[in-house]
Amino acid sequence: MTRNQRRQPPLKELKKLPNLSVKHIFKKAGLVACFFLLAQVTGWSTDKIWQFNPEVQKAYQSVLNLQPEIALAQLSKVTDKSHEFHKLYLLGLNETIDILITEDPKKFEVLLANFKQRLEWLETLETGPEVLFLRAELNLQKGFNLLNMGEEFNAVFAIRRAYNITQDCIKKYPDFVPIKKTHGVLQVMLGSIPEKYAWFMSLLGMRGSVAVGQKQLAELKNSKSSLNQEATILLFTIKGFINQFFGEAAKGMLEYLKEQPENRLGLFITINMLMKDSQAEKALELFQTLEKNNQGLPMYYADYLHGDALLQKGEYQKAIGYYQKFQKGYRSQSFKKDSYYKLSICYWLLNDLPNAKINFDKAKTVGKESAEPDKYAAKQLEESQMPNQKLLKARFATDGGYYEQAAAALQSIGVSELKTKKEQAELLYRKARLAHKTQDTQTAKTLYLQCIAFTKDNPWYFAPNSALQLGYIAQEQKDYIQAKKYFEQALTYKRHEYKNSIDSKAKFALEQIKNASKG
To answer: Taking CA 423 as the corner, what is the angle to CA 420 and CA 429, rounded to the nearest 5 degrees?
Structure first.
């Protein structure tokens, strides 16, 4: 089949696309992962780099700016047939982002039908690097959408197809630049899978390495490809959520925003990194920019994060408004339980016990427990009484970078106020976290060790995260023997709210140590 004989993708696809509107993230690293699997496209003549023409680039920027309807209108104006691969990718990416954000089951069904049609069309084409790349990308996007909608079994096999096609493409066309994105994302995802699922991935013939994935994405970031922008976003997202280098990730994303100051996806990722780096005050500044630049998908998950930032700052009444806005607009059940729990906490810290109890009870009946914040909330909801107010203030102030407020809260706690062993363990942990955040490393180490010894085998995350943090301290001091010991210890804890994320972080850190020893 010659290129002129190839059947063109059906134009009716442009009409079939659903109305696009709304937002969410990458969560868990996925989450992160999840949100940050942005991809690419090319023309009939093989372009090893993949550079979009001005029309396609304009549509692409609208996709990354979370403005799918505008992107679709711009894409419909691209009439040059040499850009059909670019258009095909952008159609899929446009829908994928919409579904990841809205989690709308009706749109999800349309997306699956469209993906089926596109993949069938690609199967009719002469195999080349672009065709393999697009088949891998579409299967990867489909897999992440299936994961996001709770269809884990089908998702795994879509991702496996993407993995196998990517391996084929790399083997046959090693100098084809765009495949670095697909390969990089898959390597990071598979390399950070929690230990309890690793056997299943191995059984399916899939293995990954976060370090290899980062290398691929870094190469794409530094290339002349039009995909280098999304590689930048992905790379710094991974540096944050997987490597735990939140400061470096925040700095990198702030540099990105200097060139793309109103890019809504960039703003959203930067806010995430800042909040993870205990820079809530800076995040609150960017929330103002995000709210002014509101054309496109409504970002309800950003409202949830905005509530978190205000809770950390101690502005509880304002936080309540953002949590309620999130609950009203967000269609998914994820983070709903946690948002009602945090509403309860806000009222509790305002000494409004009736509303605190209403939302505490409501949190028990709503949402699901797939996201780790919801798992944590569910654990807290098992308690028969509201949490210690001073410990709460210390926790949220430390998380937000309001260290003077955190220290004042901790100093005000009398031993007689701590009614349970869990509260006593938490006091040690909160003191350790504050010392660690304020660069008092020796005090942090002492308190982390005390927390581990005191917590023992109780199913609280204080001990496993203390072990993880001790590993990071040792790693930073280049004491790799001790670091390895603590990271392996973090993996031994079987029951706690943050097991998936702590295990993923410890697993990646062990990989780093292993690679460092080889070097």
So the answer is: 150
pLDDT tens, position by position, 254-310: 999 999 998 999 999 999 999 999 999 999 999 999 999 989 999 899 999 999 999
Which CATH number is 379's domain given?
Answer: 1.25.40.10
User: Which region holds residue 351: left if phi is over 0, alpha if psi is between -120 and 50, else beta?
Assistant: left
460 and 516 share one domain: yes
CA atoms within 13 A on the CB side of 12: 3
Tokens of 458: 């109780």
Residues 372 and 452 in one domain: no
Q: By residue range, what is the domain housing residue 514?
A: 407-519
Pairing of strands 32-32, 28-29: antiparallel
Length of the chain in residues, anyone? 519
Q: 379 in a domain, yes or no?
A: yes
Helix (H, G, I), strand (E, B) or coil at 28: strand
List the alpha helices (DSSP H) in 352-496.
Answer: 353-365, 372-381, 389-400, 403-411, 421-437, 441-455, 462-476, 480-492
Residue 1 is assigned to a structural domain of this protein: no
Q: Which residues pair with 28 in a beta bridge?
A: 32
Smallest CA-to-CA distance from 275 within 300, 255, 304 is with 304
User: Which stretch of DSSP H or E encloses residue 438?
Assistant: none
Q: DSSP characters for 455-483?
A: HTT-S-THHHHHHHHHHHHHHHTT-HHHH
The verdict on 138 and 249 lying in the same domain is: yes
Among the ranges given (28-32, 91-95, 350-354, 453-457), the one the predictor scored with the smallest mean pLDDT: 28-32
93 with 204, same domain: the answer is yes
Enter the pTM of the model.
0.83
Q: Which of 454, 396, 457 is nearest to 430 (CA)?
A: 396
